Amino acid sequence: MHRRTWSAAAAAAVALAVSMSATGAAVVRIALDWTPNTNHTGIFVAQDAGYFAEEGLEVVVMEPGPTVGLQLVAAGRAEFAVSMQEEVTMARSQGFPAVSIAALYPHNTSGFAAARDRGIESPADFAGRRYGGWGSDLEDVMIRTVMAASDGDADSVQQINMGTLDFATAVRRNVADFFWIFYGWQGIHAQLEGIDFVYIPLADLAPELDYYTPVIVTSERLAAEDPSLVSRFLRALARGCVDAAARPDEAAEALLRHAPELDRALVIASQRWLAGQSVLDIGVWGRQDPAVWRRFAQWALEGGLIDQAIDPVAAFTNAFLPSGAASP
């Protein structure tokens, strides 16, 4: 992700006009960050199980288009969006009042990966190699951060923008030597495709890289003016996500009903793996640690990902979670 230009004017123009369905339920929209996948299964489980309906909500799931979720939230075209901590941090540095209201997983589930025959076992082996990614500032700073620990020369890494090419295909085509992947989807897919690879979790490399991705976001205005709506939405979503973690095979079927174009074997294997990364306690689900936000915000500022510091504690809140835990 390159730096985005977030419009404070657009953010100020948010119109709170939650419509009502014929049944009297409040219609709310959540914009996905990508096409439907197992990061989103909790939403569909909550829909199918009637959890949203029990909270008086009718939820419309919006798939991604030219406009990203945070911008839809700003324009009043979505009440909620699936985003990531890095996106929220960058947006807030430009005055965009997005706030993270829940983390879908307690730890970062992404990391670097390389075909085993490349002999890459740690960031010390990145020097002089080809990195396949999306050409973002974030990736460059991540690589520099993890290589600095071994005094590696990050400038010797050749960075290749491979667009939307998936990890398994990129390995087969010899596009690059190492990649940044979300293990729960791309890693599982590569395993099913018979790719033998080494995986190095970001969470194991540096504390500041163990950040929240994905997160659920809303606008500060909606959070302030309709806190009941936000709480009801998260209460239902939490139940869906906890159910997905407790019964991953059933959850996989829920996702496949909504996205039948997905590969069944991949969805089931991915859902099972993510169940091990999730929490089963609804009183803990979604909670965000201020230390995680502080570390990442400082790292982003020092790395030049943002031009001005943000208040990291204002970028998220735990106040709407089912546990009722207020933000520190």
Write down the overall mean pLDDT: 92
State the CATH superfamily name of the largest domain. Periplasmic binding protein-like II
Secondary structure tally, helices: 13
Helix fraction bin: 25-40%
Poorly predicted runs are 8-15
Radius of gyration, in Å, reads 20 Å
Largest sheet, strands/sense/barrel: 6 strands, mixed
The strand count comes to: 11
Tally the structural domains: 2
Q: Which term fits the overall shape?
A: globular
The structure class reads alpha/beta
**What is the name of the CATH architecture of the largest domain?**
3-Layer(aba) Sandwich
Element-level helix/strand string:
HEEHHEHEHEEEHEHEHEEHHHHH
Q: Which fold name corresponds to the CATH topology of the largest domain?
A: D-Maltodextrin-Binding Protein, domain 2
Fraction of residues in β-strands: 15-25%
Using the coordinates above, name the CATH class of the largest domain: Alpha Beta
Distance between the termini: 30 Å
Describe the structure.
- There is one protein chain.
- With 328 residues, this protein is α/β, with parallel strands linked by helices.
- Helix 6 (137-148) links the parallel strand 7 (130-133) and strand 8 (158-161).
- The chain has helices at 8-12, 41-49, 51-54, 69-74, 85-93, 137-148, 167-172, 183-192, 220-225, 227-246, 248-258, 264-275, 290-302, and strands at 19-20, 26-31, 57-62, 80-83, 98-103, 110-115, 130-133, 158-161, 178-182, 197-201, 215-219.
- The chain contains 13 helices and eleven strands.
- It has two domains: 8-107 and 211-315, 3-Layer(aba) Sandwich (D-Maltodextrin-Binding Protein, domain 2); 110-209, D-Maltodextrin-Binding Protein, domain 2 (3-Layer(aba) Sandwich), CATH 3.40.190.10.
- The strands form two sheets. Strands 1, 2, 3, 4, 5 and 11 form a six-stranded mixed β-sheet that branches. The chain has a five-stranded mixed β-sheet with strand order 8-7-9-6-10.
